[in-house]
Amino acid sequence: MRPSGRDLSEMRPVSIETGITKHAEGSCLIKVGDTHVLCTATIDERVPPFIKGSGLGWVTAEYGMLPRSTTSRMRREAAMGKQGGRTVEIQRLIGRALRAGVDRSALGERQITIDCDVIQADGGTRCASITGGWVALKLAVNKLMKARMITSDPLVDPVAAVSCGLYAGQPVLDLDYPEDSEAGVDGNFILTGSKRLIEVQMSAEGATYSREQMNQLLDLAEKGVSELVEIQKAAVNA
Asked: Which residues are paired to 35 by β-bridges?
């Protein structure tokens, strides 16, 4: 029934390769099917002015898609002179999601910036960015702990994200682009490793959905995030 031939509750193949870049304090390449995102983490011993002197750390994110990450070339946003609304919304989402799993007091007064660059897009780029972004963040935090710049791990729980939706009337896990473009309902679910909800984005296109269907999608999301968290843990412990 699905274009890919996957079962309704089956994720695309997921892999996370760490240590991708030489200079970043944490880096990984996450592949979720044909969606590939490079995630890097940069530690800065300064914080934004609005939290300076508070003793709290900060995690923020930037997101972008390379010109040929899609089927036709997109103009670089730098060439247009400003970021698009979608880009701004997604990078704020990534930052919010990752901060939800951080004890900012334990991080200390420093900032970690997560850069997510989409190399190839086939649906679910924001979810892949959050999932890979947490791995890059964890690797950067590990360096801080190894250098004894912090005394306890500020990452209280893994954070991962997955898309779910109603495709041809059926609830499906981890939509690729052919499904996402035809889905009657699609949503992005961001959860912690302990299945606490961080954010849910759901919308219907030309239809409506029931509370029961929403619960079915949430059940699928919990299953998908549980699988992603195991892959995250294996990546940072490799």
From this structure: 32
Domain that includes residue 212, residue range: 14-237
9 inside domain: no
E strands, 45-168, where? 58-65, 111-120, 159-167
CB atoms within 10 A of CB 222: 16
Within a domain: residue 2?
no
What pLDDT sits at residue 136? Answer: 98
Nearest to 14 by CA among 196, 192, 224: 224
Assigned token pair, 192:
């912690």
Cα-based angle 222, 203, 101 (whole degrees, multiple of 5) = 40
Q: How far apart are CA 82 and CA 99, in angstroms?
A: 25
What is the domain-level CATH number for residue 140? 3.30.230.70
The count of domains in the chain is: 1
Q: Is the pTM of this model over 0.70?
A: yes
211 assigned binding-site residue: no
The pLDDT of 141-153, averaged and rounded, is 96
- How confident is the model at residue 87, as a pLDDT? 93
Residue 238 clears pLDDT 90, i.e. is over it: no
12 among annotated binding-site residues: no
Residues 85/18, Cβ–Cβ less than 8 Å: no
Mean pLDDT on 25-44:
98
* 153-168 per-position pLDDT tens digit: 999 999 999 999 999 9
* Residue 126 annotated in ligand binding: yes
What DSSP line would sit under 49-61, residue for residue? Answer: GGGTTSS--EEEE
Is residue 26 marked as binding? no
